[in-house]
Amino acid sequence: MKSKLPNSGTSIFSVMSQLAVKHQAINLSQGFPNFPVDERLTAITAALCKDNVHQYMPMAGYLPLLQNIASVTQKQYDRLVDPTTIILVTAGATQGIFATIQALVHFDDEVIVIDPSYDCYEPAILLSGGRPIRIALQDDYTVNWKTVEQACSPKTKMLLINNPHNPSGKIFTTHDLEQLELIMEHYPNIILLSDEVYEYITFEQKHLSIHSRPKLLERSVIASSFGKTFHITGWKVGYLIAAEKLINEIKKVHQFTVFSVNSLAQVAISNYLELVDLNEIASFYQKKRDFFRKLISKSRFELLPCEGTYFQVVSYANISNENDVAFCKRLVEEHGVAAIPNSVFYADGKDLKHIRFCFAKTDATLEAAAVKLNLV
């Protein structure tokens, strides 16, 4: 049988998690929190189980949830959005991104992807018949916008960005967004897909969203994740906001893949949004970041800047000349800590001797991991 994705196998996330289990290692590889969910959310969910919220929701989403998303978007980004026309609740941001690409990218269209990039992007492009054009960030994880523009052509249908950026932890500056606007101005047929799932996890600098760029709104699809925001990754609930002409096409794909998203989760999140302060999320994770950085500050790892997300990238160049995949496997087997090698996020396997740790863990987990990492 001929595969549609011949180069796709078991993801590095699964590989490292399986190795962590096999060697009873501390898993700082896969990006999921291991601490409890807010008790207010679990209480809301428990109470709702007895209510009549167990049947199909409207295809676009539970109306009160759509209204609360619109309210949050206005409060956070000063953007007025119509909850009934330009918001779509999705089965996680990944499904939203997949549906967007399937709806808007046609056979032989080119999609520019900024590497290192999340592994769900390229398969969605290939399955749509499109051609991924992957452009690497500079070694400091900043964008060379001249290189991006040089990759654009009349065949370019979409530009896919991730901000805050996984795995690097970098966030876009005002200059980045201005350069992006210039490219979009020069190529008026390009659609921007902005993956902003870590939007509420930034630290010294505030996240600059595409929501705040009026010039781009009619040509942008913005993906968000309740899973990341509220550390409920297993709920798989996200949402898209896009101009009506774009979201209508995306809905056509959405309705024939999942149709509607988990009803209980939608109602619970809607009720929770009326209680929670989203601005507290950044300070919560900043304490985690600072705590982890301090714990391993005297190790032989070099700590790279972490401006957002719950990932810390480090260089192990002072420790080993091994490629990063081999180093990560040895780190699990010999030292009992699982990490992710950054080379897997590049089309060409670019190896900067950088690996990624997830610090969305309990303090006890981070302390135990640090003891082991300080001995490497």
TrEMBL record:
Keyword Transferase: yes
The entry's keywords: Aminotransferase, Pyridoxal phosphate, Transferase
One function term, GO molecular function aspect: kynurenine-oxoglutarate transaminase activity
Every Aminotransferase class I/classII large domain range: 25-372
InterPro entries reported for this sequence: Aminotransferase_I/II_large (IPR004839), Kynurenine-oxoglutarate_AT (IPR051326), PyrdxlP-dep_Trfase (IPR015424), PyrdxlP-dep_Trfase_major (IPR015421), PyrdxlP-dep_Trfase_small (IPR015422)
Taxonomic superkingdom: Bacteria
Pfam families, alphabetized: Aminotran_1_2
Cofactor: pyridoxal 5'-phosphate
A cellular-component GO term for this protein: cytoplasm
Cited PANTHER family: FI04487P
Protein family membership: Belongs to the class-I pyridoxal-phosphate-dependent aminotransferase family.
Name listed for the protein in its UniProt record: Methionine aminotransferase
Protein species of origin: Flavobacterium faecale
